[in-house]
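Researcher: Going back to the complex we discussed earlier. I've cleaned up the inputs and rechecked each line, so this should be the final set. Can you rerun the prediction on the complete assembly and write out the structure?
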Amino acid sequence: MSTLSRKGQLSRDEVAHLAHLARLAVTDEELDLFADQLAAVLDAVAQVGKAAVEDVPPTTHAVPMTNVVRPDVARPSLPRDVVLAGAPAAEDGRFRVPRILQEEA
Amino acid sequence: MSDLPSMNVDELQAALADGATSVDVTRAYLDRIAAADGELGAYLHVDPEAALARAAEMDSAGTRGTGLTGIPVALKDVVVTKGVPTTSGSKILEGWKPPYDATVAARLKAAGTVLLGKTNMDEFAMGSSTENSAYGVTRNPWDPQRIPGGSSGGSSAAVAGGLAPWAIGTDTGGSIRQPAALTGLVGHKPTYGSVSRYGLIAFSSSLDQAGPMARTVLDAALLHEAIGGYDPLDSTSIDAPLPVLAEAARRGAEGSLAGLRVGVVRELGGEGHADGYEDGVLTSFAAAVARLEAMGAEVREISCPAFDLALAAYYLIAPSEASSNLARFDGVRYGLRVGDDGARDLDEVMALTREQGFGPEVKRRIILGTYALSSGYYEAYYGQAQKVRTLISRDFSAAWDGGNGAGVDVLVSPTTPTVAFPLGARVDDPIAMYAADLCTLPASLAGVPAISVPCGLSEGLPVGFQIMAPALADDRCYRVAAALEAALTDERGDRGFLDQLAARAATTEGAA
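Model: Rerun complete. Updated structure for the full complex:
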């Protein structure tokens, strides 16, 4: 939070930080472009602050429902080979992922 | 059979009952696609052989001439289709063939329809012009230099151009209604929860709804009935019967609106709120309101003050939900993976994959959503937007309930502030692009049904009339839209709004 400046402003560094949090390897050109565009968008969306919302509950969802569950009955899942066929890399009947731990770790 | 692609679906049904085959009908659309889609760019995927094989199967099923058997349909590429490429307009899903059908696709299959193809769209449905597709622009059949609306712009161009009799779109903040309005179609966003979201590639889960885009109100109602209703596979699906829609459309077309109470929303183009609205749009809208009055409706102005904040609330809520939903595109389970050279770790590969796989608007919205949800800003942005959402719902409730009998049955507004704008006009200015959704956002945020029906032309381009109703009263939208449509069709003496486009094309060809 200390890396973010006051409301309605977004610096290039902040955009870079947010992009990192969102796992987007943005380019320098994109950082320049997005910082300007997002500052304008933030100005516009900051209008929500004008509303008098004391005692107003938030709406997360237009249809008020809670704890929707289906009957606890086992159903067949998709065949493994069919699902893996859509993956960028598979090995031994599993998704293959890039390494997760550093070599020194 | 050359006139098949200009038929309304009820006419196609009659033709099929009368001896035409689904193969004839399907081939007529495929020919039209082959001839016109090079210019329009409505489709991302068409498989003529598969479509004709399916049509032949329907012809031999023994149910030809009943229901929707043998009627072709196009699906927006956000709807997953088993074994048929589905991209949601994004490079990150290029080449992906889903292992299952969305409920909407499954129901249309069960009804006997023939899939013509998957239509172009703004990437992950984020946009109002279809220019954010990773696969190129789609052009408006009324003027190829203009946008077909978005995000369901491939569906709108396909139907308006006669490349599909009707199509499925999805609407998060206006993505069915706005492109329908800009191409002279009928487009309906159902009550949230009344059409299953199972198998729609999620953008903003609390807002996304699939719905029909069609040449006429009756066609839209028929398509809506085929896809709607409870689905246990969607945890937000409403377990209630769908209202009878086609019948509502037929009743509406009889022309009387006696006793109907109509509220014109002041904040959507009314006095003091007309900035950014084109005169031609407001003139056409006002004429349509007068027409409703002439059919017996009681019209009054209704103020919904919180609607002024709908755009701000929407562009916080939708990007926030999107930033979370799009986290699933991590280069592991489906789609693209970039930079997996053995030296890079998962985080780097993920960031490179998402950098190359997502376009600029998607990145902007992910960054904005990440910001709005971050600690210290959550209350001021996302939390505040959710409270504004409550205020918008309360404005709707106040309009329906009134006080002292002052309530209304439907609210109306223009569907969009302007007619279709030129390609490229707003791509570099997100705020200008977002303004295209100004009129459609309140119904999305409140989850209420809303329809757009053509009400005239301004500078030769279609203008849409929006009718909003209380949750689960979708039938009211169809009834009122059908009344307006019937009055305008009678006056012009044609079979529907799109006949004007066909007449224009005939004139142009004659002159050339």
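Model: Worth noting: DSSP finds three helices and two strands in chain A.
Researcher: Good, that matches what I expected from the previous run.
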